[in-house]
């Protein structure tokens, strides 16, 4: 899930790119995977909190005036940090390294 | 941290409720989808709350440890007291039983005091939280 979140966040322009909120992320993940149900709130916000604590995401609460004007609660907005792209690349490299020997065994 | 999470979930529920896809499902379908999502994320949320609350539990470790020791002492003292009860009054073991009975009563009293202190601390915390939200 962490990788999928970082993938989505980086697709929005990387560091300095556009911000997103938890529900938009859940919708995107469900749409991309063709899932009928969105990821549970507990799951998504725990993952976002983990990424934020690891310094891969940055967050801020949007201006209350904007939320009040639209008659809705304030959104917490997230944005990737510079570390995120590096962490995602490292994770993918580690995954492909662990998969490679297995494919050698399977192929004749 | 907890209030931030609460506000974030409140905002998420609002977004979900007002999502155009929910209107197509009708009120019952939307209710099931929203409730199902809350339920699906509950284990992760509980795990997160446990991680956050662990710091608070650590501060309770000392009185909890004392409480456990007292709880272990009670049956032990009770067993010793029972030995004294059935021993002949002239035997020295009678005094062991008497001491055991005294220790049993003292440890029971001490655990009641520790329990009351822990309950009072809990009530105080809840009261402080209520005062913070409703000054």
**Overall pLDDT score of chain A:** 80
Main structural class of chain A = mainly alpha
- Beta-strand share of residues of chain A: 5-15%
The number of helical runs of chain A is 5
Please report the distance between the alpha carbons of the first and last residues of chain B: 20 Å
Percent of residues of chain B in helical segments? over 70%
Largest sheet of chain B: none
Chain pair forming the biggest interface = A-B, 23 and 28 residues
Give the overall form of chain A: globular
**Series of H and E elements of chain A:** HHHEHEH
Major β-sheet strand ordering of chain A? 1-2
Q: Give the N-to-C terminal Cα separation of chain A.
A: 33 Å
Give the percentage of residues in beta strands of chain B: under 5%
Which H/E pattern describes the elements of chain B? HHHH
Characterize the structure shown.
The complex is a heterodimer of chains A (108) and B (135). A two-stranded antiparallel sheet of chain A has the order 1-2. Chain A is globular and about 50 Å long. Chain A has 108 residues and is mainly α. Helix content of chain A is 61%, strand content 9%. The two termini of chain A are 33 Å apart. Chain B is mostly helical and 135 residues long. Chains A and B meet through helix 2 and helix 3 of A and helix 1 and helix 2 of B.
């Amino acid at each position: 899930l962490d990788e999928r979140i970082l993938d989505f966040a980086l697709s929005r322009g990387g560091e300095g790119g556009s911000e997103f909120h938890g529900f938009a992320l859940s919708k995107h993940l469900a749409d991309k995977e063709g899932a009928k149900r969105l990821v549970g709130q507990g799951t998504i916000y725990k993952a976002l909190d983990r990424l934020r604590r690891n310094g891969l995401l940055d967050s801020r609460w949007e201006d209350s005036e904007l939320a009040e004007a639209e008659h809705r609660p304030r959104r917490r907005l997230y944005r990737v940090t510079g570390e995120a792209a590096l962490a995602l690349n490292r994770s993918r490299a580690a995954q492909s390294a662990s998969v490679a020997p297995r494919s050698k065994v399977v192929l004749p | 941290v907890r209030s931030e999470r609460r506000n974030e979930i409140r905002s998420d529920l609002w977004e979900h409720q007002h999502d155009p896809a929910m209107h197509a499902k009708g009120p019952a379908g939307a209710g099931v989808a929203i409730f199902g999502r809350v339920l699906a994320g509950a284990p992760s949320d509980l795990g997160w709350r446990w991680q956050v609350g662990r710091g608070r539990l650590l501060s309770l470790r000392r009185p909890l440890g004392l409480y456990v020791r007292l709880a272990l002492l009670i049956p032990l003292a009770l067993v010793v007291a029972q030995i004294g009860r059935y021993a002949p009054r002239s035997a020295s073991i009678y005094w062991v039983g008497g001491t055991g009975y005294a220790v049993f009563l003292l440890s029971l009293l001490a655990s009641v005091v520790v329990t009351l202190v822990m309950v009072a601390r809990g009530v105080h915390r809840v009261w402080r939280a209520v005062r913070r939200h409703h000054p």
